[in-house]
């Protein structure tokens, strides 16, 4: 492979802002696997956000790139799995599997798509120093004949339309809106563009915690919500505390600490089969490897309010942010019913079929 931009390339990133800034290019924030695709004839490499290759996990995307992208190019985008009018991030996670046969089966059962939103090289030319607005025009021209499962990400410079998108797209499983300065060159690894995401709050039961990697202080709090059958489901974690706050939390939660998980709603967390019917922390994961997934059980009696952006199935998609304790709420009142449901939006309308 000999291209004007060679792998690995760290993708340009976004920093959070509270509102949609004016006079920029606006796109949907896709909830998938960020991917920079390098094609030189039949040679295709898919680089992840961390630089590790994703090529072997998405054979159908490799085939689509060979069929739909220009013969020599470098494209930045998102690998997504979409059906039923919305994105399905959890089905992407299933692809990271060591068995090639399993990957092939999933590629046939739930094929992925590649949504392209930037062009870093075309032919023998690098576009890294080209302004965003010109890269967008080059992308539209280069992919004008592309068809599913390769898509050019819709974009606009109309701030009012971007606000409409921000309200609509969440119903299709998208993450918010990204704003890009029109004169911006591509800056690998820099948070040079802006993301605007939804934030909501929920009252959750604190049912345990994990220690911080630095020592015996709180690393993250384990959050639970009760389902319709009154089972406490693990919905995620909240973290990002100061070191001083981590130390205080250990003392604050000490009266609730249990010596073991006996009698705890997540007592069977070490049993792989138990995770098929109840969401618990510490389940087996291809992503965790040798990571210590042990946790400290607490009596599920304390409630806190957390901020979250959106749900993925029955859990928070990203780490939640601690807001405050809620001594006025009983644990039993912390149910899924309190969560706001986004208005449905059919993803096919966005991708054009």
Automatic annotation (TrEMBL):
It comes from the Bacteria. Its EC number is 6.5.1.1. Residues 105-227 form the ATP-dependent DNA ligase family profile domain. The keyword GTP-binding does not apply. GO terms for molecular function: DNA ligase (ATP) activity. Keywords: Ligase. This is DNA ligase (ATP). It comes from Streptantibioticus ferralitis.
């Amino acid at each position: 492979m000999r291209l004007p931009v060679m792998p690995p390339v760290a993708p340009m990133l976004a920093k959070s802002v509270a509102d949609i800034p004016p006079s920029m290019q606006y796109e949907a924030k896709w909830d998938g696997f960020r991917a920079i695709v390098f094609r030189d004839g039949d040679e295709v490499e898919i680089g992840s956000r961390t630089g590790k290759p994703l090529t072997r996990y998405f054979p159908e995307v490799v085939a689509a790139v060979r069929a739909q992208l220009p013969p020599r190019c470098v494209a930045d985008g998102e690998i997504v799995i979409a059906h039923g009018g919305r994105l399905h991030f959890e089905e992407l996670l299933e692809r990271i599997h060591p068995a090639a046969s399993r990957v092939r089966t999933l590629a046939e059962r739930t094929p992925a798509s590649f949504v392209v939103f930037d062009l870093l090289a075309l032919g023998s030319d690098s576009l890294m120093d080209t302004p965003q607005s010109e890269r967008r025009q080059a992308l539209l021209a280069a992919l004008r004949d592309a068809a599913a499962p390769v898509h050019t990400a819709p974009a606009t410079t109309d701030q009012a339309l971007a606000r409409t998108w921000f309200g609509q797209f969440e119903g299709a499983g998208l993450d918010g809106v990204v704003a890009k300065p029109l004169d911006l060159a591509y800056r690998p690894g820099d948070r040079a563009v802006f993301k605007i995401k939804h934030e909501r709050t929920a009252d959750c039961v604190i049912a345990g915690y994990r220690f911080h990697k630095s020592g015996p202080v709180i690393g993250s709090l384990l959050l639970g919500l009760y389902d319709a059958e009154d089972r406490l489901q693990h919905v995620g974690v909240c973290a990002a505390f100061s070191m001083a706050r981590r130390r205080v939390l250990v003392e604050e939660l000490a009266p609730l600490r249990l010596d073991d998980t006996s009698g705890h709603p997540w007592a069977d967390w070490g049993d792989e089969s138990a995770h098929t019917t109840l969401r618990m922390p510490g389940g087996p994961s291809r992503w965790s490897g040798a990571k210590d997934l042990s946790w400290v059980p607490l009596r599920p009696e304390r409630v806190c309010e957390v901020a979250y952006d959106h749900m993925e199935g029955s859990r928070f998609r990203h780490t939640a942010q601690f807001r405050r304790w809620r001594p006025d709420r009983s644990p039993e009142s912390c149910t899924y019913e309190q969560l706001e449901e986004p208005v449905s939006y059919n993803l096919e309308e966005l991708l054009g079929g």
